[in-house]
Amino acid sequence: MPAVSVDTFFACSLMVMLVLSAMAATTTVLRPHINNAAEGIPERYREISKYLLLNEGKPSNWGQNGQTAPETFGLAKPFVKSAYELDMDKVSRLNSENVYAISYADAYASLKMPDVSFKMEIKPLFEVSISLVATFKLDNDTVYKFRISTERNGSPVPTQLRMLTVAEDYLDAISVSAASGEKLQNITISDSVTGPALLVVLARSSYNDKIASFNAFAFAHNSAEPDPKGTFLRLSPLDYGLNASFLTSGISLTQAYALTFDYDSPLVQMANTSESVTYEIPHFLDSAPTVLVVTGLDTLTFFSEWTAYPQMPIDMGADFADSHTLSDVFSFTYLVTVDSAIYDCAIWLGGPKK
């Protein structure tokens, strides 16, 4: 197929996917009893789902106050007239990895609708998959071949990629195109660099720079296999500050970075205690998530931990898998904006059987 036809195919495919995703308030019945639902219930749930996204909550800046739960729940960004523009700190506080996260019990109570249970997911419009497919040893370097895939529901998404490699005292970046939704890319690291290493991939749609995604992959380099994410630090971004809480003793931090599609910058340390270090997150003019990486030593073992700001993906709320005590459960999907980037948002709502 000619290159122009391929580009046109992927552009049209992406447009179709976005149109389907943008059908706000599309209702899906998760149990086969819609004909028995009381009149008005689906519309009520639809309005509640909109309320969650269009209401600022109380206080309107509850997202920035990590010590308290909201009096009234709502995720909208304060003082903004654009519909479905969410506050990045309110969204981040829905992520259970964040030390400032609110519980579902707090969110449920602050919604002030005791007959309504809800679940919410917010995530990028497409996924980034990273796999290491081969390793080559040279005289003084090691070459790692990675496969990067960018897909939505199994369909390829044409993207531009920025790939950053982080290791001890080492940061390197390259930018490449994944026009077919897949890229095989070699990453070369000098054998003088101590690992393990972390490959951060930031991906941006070739047709809309507000549609972006990310992922990271830790791998051995002159080192043992890296420990799982979240072994050494709990990273909690809030109000343009990053709290790095120690999860083991004997930790000393070495570097911290903020990485986006267009920028990368070391983080400035603002405060430290025996249990955590706080960094300032720069305000980048970039319509994409910021990936935050903190490196350090656990006694003599080098490690790197990472998260994103806003802290995505979000998956919080009621467990509707065991819904025999509930009436019909309805889902509603929206496109939302968080810090200028566009995300998928799905909300499930249900109530007790009458």
Explain what you see.
It is a single chain. The protein has 354 residues and is mostly beta strands. It has a domain at 3-123 and 312-350. The protein has 4 helices and 22 strands. It has helices at 3-21, 41-54, 88-92, 104-111, and strands at residues 28-29, 85-86, 117-124, 127-137, 141-152, 155-156, 159-167, 170-178, 182-190, 197-205, 212-219, 233-238, 241-246, 251-259, 264-266, 268-272, 276-280, 290-298, 301-309, 314-317, 330-338, 341-350. The strands form 5 sheets. Strands 1, 2, 3, 20, 21 and 22 form a 6-stranded mixed beta sheet that branches. Strands 4, 5, 6 and 9 form a 4-stranded antiparallel beta sheet that branches. A 4-stranded antiparallel beta sheet has the order 8-7-10-11, with no helix packed on it. The longest helix is centred in the first third of the chain and has 19 residues, at 3-21. Residues 1-39 have low confidence and may be disordered.
